[in-house]
Amino acid sequence: EVAEVVGGSAGVKDATVYGVSIPNLEGRAGMASLVVDEDAFSPAALFQTVTANLPRYAAPLFVRLQQELEITGTFKNRKVNLVEQGFDPRAIDEKLFFRDDASKAFVPLDEKLYAQIVSGEVKV
Question: What sign has the CA pseudo-torsion 120, 94, 16, 78?
Answer without folding.
Answer: negative
